[in-house]
Design brief:
By secondary structure, the protein is an alpha/beta fold. It contains 26 helices and 28 strands. The chain is 31% helix and 16% strand. Helix 7 links the parallel strand 10 and strand 11.
Length: 731
């Protein structure tokens, strides 16, 4: 029996874990008390991953679908050869642009998976790259592109030093932090209040975080109205920091003019927050010694998601809290990920648009709800072959029924995963992926999000089970079959920038053969945190040094101020508060209609402390869906239709209806219901045999190209108009 210091890769905190291994098998996970950042903290999801690791339902060998829909085991050589032959045939008939990839949420926490699949799609000349970003973060990335000139510039709230944390649409006591990495965030927030500060949560639901601190119950999709009304008060009462605005930003005019039109009294009707409460909140935020406004998933999923994210940052700018201690800061990790993304040509927004719907790419990714129409719409670039890795879009992307129909018409569908999930029911091949405890890793995407600049590498804890392989190796094998090395072009492009010394050239040379993720990380971290991007220095960080420090290295106690000029890519290095997209979104909001009388309630999503994705739904504590998936309904809304707690409720949108158990609670504001998505499993054989079922809410969510936000392609998952009625239980 042996123990290994490693870390979880479910979400941004990347909590330190101790893995116990016996006879080559992971038998236990526990929080690492010696970890310098998370100090013995972990959420239930991280601890339960041992059940996923050892799940008897895991796919451990390549599978090929038979004509009757069942699967048979085949060899890796046969699988890669046959897939390669069929991909070449698709490329010859329709071009490389007809081959696409959907990479699920876990790709964001695997540097190798994310890099390799993106490079694979680019090498084909395809624009069909899809991820959960349009169900999660694309509006945040778009706001950053508009404000800072780069979609990968993400302000981080300085929670360890702030006096006022304003949290919009985020529930970090359950999510554990999204686009911010700090370990046990409950402690950070408690420390704020202990030193006399405030933590205020703006949300239609009195979430776990809101219950622990202060709650402002906003109507779904009312965030933009609330934020504009707060800006109205700040400008009207002379609370704005005009010096900071002039120094850091340009183009404040359209924001001022829009805010003038949205008084707290007029906003009250649209956001549901009393006018006096809006005034009090605005004065408190502007008057705090330091303050940080931060929004996440709830702020990213409404009809005006990009504008909401813009306004959150504008609130920080006009109160002088951008790039300020205790405000919001910009990370500087071991690797200058922001600049690297620009040099590699990956930090893009609206550099091209979708074939269907004319929507912008964000970070080279297209809106996931477009997959179905892209498959079914004839013409050049029609999607004919699709690889789905670490994802289950039938349960996570709006328009599930349309996508299920479309997938069955593909020339080729390949899954790379632990399970044959609902999406893979129509796949021609399913290839077994290694878990994150079966590969080495450094989560590059999280480096700039740590409250304390920090870096940690982990080697694999156990060997891959069965014949499973790390995702990047599978991508490499597919690329080889098509005649290219996926990562050769991106790294060659980086090598062409700046004074890259002999060491870097030597490290990069294996691109001509086979570049590994470990080699790539060694190259990137040797660039250092200071000086020029490629200023390699003796004695600096290296993969060898990280391996000698398996619990990671803390690089600084706090995020730095003074980083703004290095994180703004607009001319003049100033935050741009105007621009055609921002002005158009302001106009669209101000002209927006009121409630839909036919669908008078508004649907939002909900986080669950144990639920993360469909992988976790196969663990023992998730096999009773009614424990995890139910519709929260306000008592007054329930009384109007004669609904009592535990009764089934029928939820109807313009797209259709689903039935789900109801929980009657004043945790949601009146006129709002909350239902988590990602459920609706249909287990059989290799199909997540033990998983809970539940209702697939994505079957009835808006999914047409015209339903997507024009600025970012964001799916409309929050504030969806619905009506509800008590459903008669099936006999």
């Amino acid at each position: 029996m042996s123990e290994h210091a490693t870390f979880c890769r479910i979400c941004e905190p990347t909590c330190g874990m101790v893995a116990t291994v016996e006879d080559g098998r992971l038998v236990q996970l526990r929080p690492d008390k010696q970890h310098p950042i998370t100090t013995g903290f972990s959420c239930p999801k991280g601890l339960e991953f041992v059940h996923v690791q050892n799940d008897p339902d895991r796919v451990l060998h390549p599978l090929r679908r038979r004509p009757d829909g069942t699967f048979e085991q085949i060899s890796w050589e046969t699988a890669i050869s046959e897939i390669g032959t069929r991909l070449r045939a698709v490329r010859e008939r329709h071009g490389g642009e007809s081959i696409g990839w959907y990479g699920g949420n876990p790709t964001a926490f695997s540097h190798s998976h994310a890099f390799w699949l993106s490079a694979f799609v680019r090498a084909l000349g395809s624009r069909h790259l899809y991820t959960p970003n349009t169900q999660d973060t694309s509006s945040r990335f778009t706001a950053s592109a508009l404000l800072y000139g780069s979609p990968v510039v993400i302000p981080v709230p300085d929670l360890e030093r702030t006096d006022f944390a304003l949290l919009v649409g985020t529930n970090p006591l359950v999510s554990r932090g999204s686009l911010v990495s700090a370990g046990n965030l409950r402690e950070r927030f408690t420390e704020i209040t202990a030193r006399g500060g405030r933590v205020v949560v703006v949300d239609p639901r009195r979430t776990e975080t809101a219950r622990a601190f202060e709650h402002v119950g906003v109507r779904p999709d009312g965030d933009a109205w609330l934020l504009l009304a707060m800006l109205h008060v700040i400008f009207e009462e002379g609370l704005a920091d005009d010096v900071a605005i002039a120094k850091q930003a340009t183009g404040i005019g359209p924001i001022r003019r829009a805010a003038e039109q949205v008084s707290p009294e007029s906003a009250e009707e649209r956001c549901g927050v009393p006018a006096e409460e809006i005034r009090t909140l605005a004065r408190a935020f502007a008057g705090a010694p330091s303050a940080a406004a931060h929004g996440r998933t709830g702020a990213c999923l409404g009809r005006y998601a990009t504008l909401v994210n813009v306004l959150i940052d504008v609130l920080n700018v006009v109160t002088g809290n951008l790039d300020r201690e205790g405000g919001v800061l910009f990370g500087r990790g071991t690797v200058d990920f922001t600049r690297l993304a620009h040099l590699a040509g990956a930090a893009t927004y609206d550099s091209y648009r979708s074939r269907v719907g004319d929507l912008p790419e964000v970070l080279g990714q297209m809106p996931a709800p477009l997959m179905a129409p892209e498959i079914e719409t004839p013409g050049k670039g029609q999607l004919k072959a699709l690889v789905v890795s670490a994802g289950n879009p039938l349960l996570s992307v709006p328009g599930s029924n349309d996508l299920e129909r479309a997938l069955s018409s593909l020339d080729l569908q390949v899954g790379i995963d632990f399970y044959v999930n609902e999406t893979h029911r129509t796949a021609d091949y399913v290839l077994p992926a290694a878990t994150f405890y079966e590969r080495d890793d450094l989560v590059l995407a999280a480096l700039d999000l740590h409250l304390k600049p920090f870096v940690q590498w982990t080697d694999a804890v156990v060997e891959p089970a069965g014949e499973a392989k790390p995702d990047w190796e599978i991508v490499d094998l597919l690329g080889k079959e098509l005649g290219f090395a996926p990562m050769s072009a991106p790294v060659t492009k980086l090598v062409g920038h700046g004074g890259l010394g002999r060491t870097a050239l030597r490290l990069a040379r294996p691109v001509a053969g086979r570049l590994t993720p470990a080699l790539l990380v060694d190259l990137l971290i040797r660039t250092g945190r200071d000086g020029d991007l490629f200023g390699l220095r003796r004695g600096g960080l290296s993969l060898k040094k990280l391996r000698a420090n398996p619990r990671g290295i803390v690089l600084a106690e706090h995020l730095e101020t003074g980083m703004l000029p290095r994180r703004v890519f607009h001319k003049g290095r100033k935050v741009r508060l105007d621009g055609a997209v921002i002005e158009s979104e302001l106009d669209r909001l101000l002209a927006s209609p009121g409630p839909d009388e036919d669908y008078p309630l508004l649907l939002i999503g909900r986080r669950d402390v144990r639920s993360h994705n469909s992988w976790m739904h196969n663990t023992p504590k998730h096999r009773d869906p009614e424990r995890r998936q139910y519709a929260m309904v306000h008592p007054k809304d329930a009384a109007e239709i004669g609904l009592t707690d535990g009764d089934p409720v029928r939820v109807t949108t313009v797209k259709g209806s689903v039935e789900i158990p109801a929980r009657v609670t004043d945790e949601v504001v009146q006129g709002c219901i909350a239902v988590p998505h990602g459920w609706g499993h249909r287990g059989a054989g290799w199909q997540i045999a033990n998983a809970a079922g539940g209702a697939n809410i994505n079957e009835i969510l808006p999914s047409d190209p015209s339903d997507l936000e024009r600025a970012s392609g964001m799916a409309h998952l929050n504030a969806v108009p619905v009506r509800i009625e008590a459903a008669v239980p099936a006999v």
